[in-house]
Amino acid sequence: MIKIDQISKGFDNDVVPVKNLSAEIRKGDVISLIGPSGTGKSTLLRCINMLDPPTSGDIYFEGQKITEKGYDVTALRRKVGMVFQSFNLFHHLTSIENIMIPQVVLLKKTRQEAYDRGMELLEQVGLGEKALQYPAQLSGGQKQRVAIARALAMDPQVLLLDEPTSALDPTMVDEVNAVIRKLASSGITIMIVTHDMAFARDISTRVFYMDEGIVYEEGSPEEIFENPQKPNTIQFIKKISSLEVDICSRDYDFEGLRKTAYELMGRMKLFGAFYQNAVLLLDEVIHQILFPRLSDPFRIHLKLIGRKDGVTLCFEYSGKQEDLVSLIRENAALSLIEVDQDERLAISCRIICGYAEAMNYTRQEGELGNLLEIVVRGES
Ligand code: ADP
Ligand code: MG
Predict the structure, then answer these.
(1) Whose CA is nearest to atom 13 of ligand 1?
(2) pLDDT digits (tens, 9 = 90+) for 262-292
(3) How much helix, strand and coil, in percent to the nearest 5, is found in the chain?
(4) Whose CA is nearest to atom 12 of ligand 1?
(5) Where in the sequence of the chain do the CATH 3.40.50.300 domains occur?
(6) pTM above the 0.85 mark?
(7) Ligand 2 centroid vs 301 CA: distance in angstroms?
(8) Each residue of 28-52: pLDDT tens digit?
(9) Residue 40 CA: which ligand 1 atom is closest?
(10) Residue 313: how many CB atoms within 10 A of its CB?
C-alpha cells in the first residue's frame, strides 16, 4: 500500500531526524512505531501524509509517487487520516460540525449526508450524545474520540495516529485505546506512534523500532518485545520492561524496591492481583528462601522482567550451591505440584497463600554461582 524509498527529512536547524529510511506498509497492517523520543517518529508520519514532505527520497501510495511534483496532496490527505496528540479540533464548532465540515469541503457531501455519517461515527466512538457539545465541554478522552471520528469521516485507507493518548489523563486512556483497538481489528491500515508498549503489543501486526534515523528493527510484536536482535532495540526493550538491582544487605530498602516494581508493572500495563502477587513473591523468595541460607557477605542480583503474559523473577546469588528443589519443598510458602520429567528442574509450583496460580521454576548456574528463575504466568 505504501512504499517508502530512502527518504530523508532535515530541518532548517540542521537536525536530520530521518536519514535514508525505507519501509513498506501493507494493506491491513497495524504498525506501532516505538523508540526513544526525538528519533523521528512524528516526522515520519508527517512525511507519509505529506504534511511535511521529505527532503529527499520517494514515497509511493498504491504505486503512485506522492512525492512527485504536482501530485494532488489533498487527494492523498483524504486517503490518509491523521490523529494528533493534541486533538486539533475547531473550538468554535460542535462535535458533529467538526466531523461534518471536512466531509462537506473535501468530499463535497451535502450537509445531510455529512450529518448522517457524522452521527454514525460519533455513535461508533460512543459519543452520540455529545454531538452538540463544543470541545471545551468535553473531556480529553472525548475530544480525542471526536478527532478519531473526524479522521474516519474521510473513509481513509490509512489512519496515522501520533501518540493519541499521551496528552490524556490516565483515566481516559482506556476509552480511547478501546476505540483504536476496535479500528485495528476492523481491517483499516493503521500506523500509530505510542509509548504504551502493552497496547502496542496487543494491537499490532508489526512493530517498527525507530532509531538512528531509520526503522532500525522491525518485526512482529513477539519478535520486537520478546526477542529483539539489534543492540539499540535490545537496550530499549530492556530499559522499558525490566528492573535490575543488587541486594547486598539484609537491611535493603524493600519498601522502595516494591514501589519501583509496581511502577514497572504499571508501565507494562500488567495490572491485577496476579502481578501484584509476583512482587510479593519476590519479597517472599528473598526473605524466606534466600536470606536464611546465605551467609554474609553475599550478593543477590535481582532481575524482574515484565512480559505480556507474566513476569520473570530472576535471582542470581553468590554463596554455596543449594538444592533448590529441596529448598522449595522445605519452604512453607510453596507447595510442589509437579516436577518436570527431564530433570531440567522445571517445576510448576503453587503458592499456598494464593500468590500465584501457576509458576514455572527453573534453576541454572548464573554468574554469581547460583541462579533461580521463576516465571509467573497469568492473566491481567
Ligand atoms: P519523535 O516523534 O520520535 O519524538 P520527532 O520526529 O518529533 O521525534 O523529532 C525528531 C527530531 O527532529 C527532534 O530532534 C526534533 O527536535 C526535530 N524536529 C522535529 N520537527 C522539527 C521542526 N519543525 N523544526 C526543527 N526541528 C524539528
Ligand atoms: Mg513524536
Answers:
(1) 38
(2) 877 776 666 555 667 677 778 878 887 788 7
(3) 35, 25, 35
(4) 17
(5) 2-229
(6) no
(7) 35
(8) 999 999 999 999 999 999 999 999 9
(9) 6
(10) 23
